[in-house]
Amino acid sequence: MGMGYKTPHRITAEEVLQELETTPLGLSEAEAQRRLQVYGPNELEEKKESLWALFARQFTNPLIVILIVAGFLALFLGDWYDTLVVWGLVLLNGILGFWQELRAQASIEGLKALTRQRVRVLREGVEKEVDASLLVPGDVILLEEGDVVPADTRLLEATGLMVDEAILTGESVPVEKHAHAVLEDDTPIYERVNCAYKGTVVARGKARGVVFATGGNTQMGLLVSKLETKAPQSPLTLALSDLARKWVLVISLILTSLVLVGLVQGREWQSLVFLAVAQLVSAVPHGLPIVITLTLVIGGIFLARNKVLVRHLPAVETLGSATFICSDKTGTITEGRLQVAGHHALEEEALYLCAALANDADGEKGDAIDLALLRWLEGEGISWVEYREAYERTWEYPFDTTKRLMAVAVRNGPHHDVYVKGAFESLLKMAEGAPAELQRIHDSLAEQGLRVLAFGKGTASSPPQSIEAVRIRIVGLVGFLDPPKEGVREAVRKAKGAGIRVLMITGDNLLTAKAVARMVGLYEEGDTVLEGRELAQYTDEELYPLLKKASVVARALPEDKHRIVRVLQSKGEIVAVTGDGVNDAPALRAADLGVAMGSGAQVSKDASAMIITDNNLAVIVQAIMAGRQITTNIAKVMRYLFSTNIFEVLYISSSILAGRPLPLYPTHILWINLVTDGVLDKAYPFTRHEGDPMKEKPRRPREVFTGRRQLGFIFFNGGFMAAAHFVLFGHLLETYDYETAITISFASAAISQWAVGLQEVGLRPILLNPLAYLRLNPYIYIGLALGIVLQGLALFVLTDFFRLVPLGWEELRLAFVVPLLTFVALELRKWVLYLSRRE
After folding, report:
1. pTM
2. Calpha distance 829→784 (Å, rounded)
């Protein structure tokens, strides 16, 4: 290939094809494969960590660094037992973290693969759909409204093409493109009207173009190569990081105070410092981020199996807290497979002509309305193919989401006939002398739940210069039936029962929207219904109470949908938005949870956090149910981990303050942390939901994860264990020698934490239905079995290593007293809450 393809804007389209050694019909498959080997995939290269870097990162956590330093401190003090145990635990923790991150990354990559961009390409004249990553220079691609441009492209043909280049140039207004323009060599990128660049969005019209740069050679690739971007952290992760920092600070202050108290009491400073470091490390649940990631990945995989593809993994945690669903009507609540169910013709022949000619469908592919019109014409015995052959299209105005119409001009002898199809209100503004009875006929059709379009015809001596210059007469009305989807009525009922408000936002007129909403149980007498034009009359403060009572917003424009989302969010609502078109992208991006339709425009998918492959409101409600389960599981594992951390801190602290010997050695604390938290927490993501999550009301994430009730449970669990162990250890010191007492304390502490781990798996009392409780999470018992084996190894095999003594049956029985009391205390706590909820 020559060098001209690097500056294709300065030469003609024909010359670009020659430079790229291709044709208007595209490349052959064999040539495309060959070029793919030369240029590589059309992807922006992501800098991936090497396996060694990933493994090394497991040891960069500040808490792990403290642990490594603690090992050196022990070695310096001549305590090589503790050194080996500490460094062994660090290595084991690193291996576990490394393995879990590898698994999580593999799952995330799998989910990314499901949401790859697809693009229409010509290969030897045959149109096919391929993965955008397979594009090569010389490929001829087809673009239409809503598409994200997949590679840098020189336009060959363009019809009414407008491209939003804000992502590349910062220009907020879409740029009009002209395929046949030839520009100066030094034309800046924002003025290259004959090219479309990777990542920009087709806002209007359609085009055919030839790819001249892919992957890192695109303008976007050159831009990205200069940046180092990191994946954004989710709100939950940020909240937990903030909580962890505060927790470390509080624990550090407590332990520093205890060291000072211990020194005053005459204890050895070496053992006190080492104990404080070990206690600090074990008091922070450093495995929590791994467990949360694992929970989100498992949730993402479950959702993918249920027709929901997660593009941004943190969105999974938002699902369970949604309070509003702002839903499209067509294709989400209704089938999206329109059929003509009624019409009124003023000029029958002109109505048929308009239906056939102001139409971009080909009988198999195209807009749902256009396809329904062609099927209707066929049913009426009209050959729309013959109409198109007889009348050459000379001008077109692609569908405008703001004006809600489309128009074409066709040659008819010396004249040009203009046909317009669109919303009745829009065509009335262009019409001359429309009969007064048309409004009544329109309303009659709309009240039947039909979506009504008007059709108009005008005549001109030449193709129109602009749509504003067109004048028409209305030739007829056509009503389309779009029946509700199966399962939507039940989904609306479930959403209402779960405290989630469903608001249907549609471009349809009020009568049609209201009729459909009534069919699915969304609209009830007394509900507020709004029209887009009314919204401007209200301030945000005035609009919010109306939205809380509304079920339908009709004749809504993209800016209306975006404003509705912002108003709801400003009042603390967590908003999920569904959409499938270019006009939905602003609202999808602004929403807490943007949900795009699998059949929708690429730009709507890119603006969203999730994609549903089955365009159905029922799927979204089902996904929210899964999200609530995921949220609950994260809250449970937090409750378990922080309960055990607080127990250890309070137990050690109370013994030091009471002037007693230490109830656990530093190595005991670290080992217990491994055989309890380390083996049980990874099983929590697999816990099933108890009861019906859709009968619960939405709760704010902060309330679920760090609210007063959650903290109350944590302090109750940890405080009870600490108090019971303090009493037990006092008894042991009076009855046995110190070595036996600390061995029983070591065993009891681990078993007590297992008891909490088992209890926190479920919210309901175990004795309410023991079999059902056992089925909640079978994996927790695998973790428990592993912990018992490891603890048994420490108690009966590695006694010298851990400075323990063998226990007889009499002593061993004492190790089960506090765990049993803990188990009963948590069970009673559950019964009290369960009975209070039933009253």
Report:
1. 0.64
2. 23
Among residues 79, 82, 328, 681, the one annotated as catalytic is 328
Q: What is the mean predicted confidence (pLDDT) over 541-561? A: 87
Helix, strand, coil abundance in the chain, percent, nearest 5: 55, 15, 30
Which is nearest to 732 in space by CA: 669, 795, 812? 812
Closest CA to 757 of 676, 665, 660: 676
Buried b (16+ CB within 10 A) or exposed e, 808-823: eeebeebbebbbebbb
Could you tell me the two tokens for 48? 């991936």
Q: Where are the alpha helices (DSSP H) in 128-234?
A: 166-169, 219-224
Cβ-count burial 752-765 (b if 16+ within 10 Å, e if not): bbbbbbbbbbbbbb
How do beta strands 393-400 and 405-412 pair?
A: antiparallel
Tokens at 536, concatenated: 């401007």
Q: Is 289 helix (H, G, I), strand (E, B) or coil?
A: helix
Give the distance, in angstroms, between the CA of residue 203 and the centroid of all CA atoms in the same chain: 24
**Residue 475, CA distances (Å) to 349, 361, 370, 371, 448 in order:** 9, 21, 17, 20, 21
CB 654 within 8 A of CB 722: yes
Q: Residue 384: in which H helix or E strand, if any? A: helix 384-390
Choose the most confident range, by mean pLDDT, from 188-192, 250-254, 689-693. Answer: 188-192
Angle value at C-alpha 769, between 768 and 775, nearest 5 degrees: 140
Q: Measured between alpha carbons, how far is 52 from 229 in angstroms, rounded to an integer?
A: 21
Query: To 5 degrees, how large is the angle CA 96–CA 99–CA 105?
Result: 135
Q: What 3-state class would DSSP assign to 675?
A: helix
pLDDT average, residue stretch 392-402: 84
**Residue 6: is its pLDDT beyond 80?**
no
Q: Say which residue, 529 or 297, is predicted with more confidence.
A: 529
Q: Give the model's confidence band at 672: pLDDT under 50 very low, under 70 low, under 90 confident, else very high.
A: confident
Are 660 and 733 in contact, with CB atoms under 8 Å apart? yes
What pLDDT was estimated at residue 109?
A: 59
Task: State the Cα–Cα distance between residues 205 and 176, nearest whole angstrom.
Answer: 10
Residues 766-789: tens digit of each pLDDT: 998 899 898 899 999 999 999 999
Residue 376: per-residue pLDDT: 95
Report yes or no: 422 and 381 within 8 Å, Cβ to Cβ: no
Q: Give DSSP secondary structure letters for 766-830.
A: GGG-HHHHHHH-THHHHHHHHHHHHHHHHHHTSTTTTT-----HHHHHHTTHHHHHHHHHHHHHH
Closest CA to 472 of 412, 409, 411, 413: 409
Q: Is 328 one of the catalytic residues?
A: yes
Per the structure block, which two tokens stand in for 321?
Answer: 């807290």
DSSP codes of every residue in 47-98: -PPPHHHHHHHTT-SHHHHHHHHHHHHHHHTT-HHHHHHHHHHHHHHHHHHH
Closest CA to 1 of 21, 23, 31: 21
Q: In whole angstroms, how far apart are CA 90 and each of 67, 85, 468?
A: 7, 9, 73
Q: How far apart are CA 421 and CA 423, in angstroms?
A: 7
Question: Strand pairing of 593-597 and 610-612?
Answer: parallel
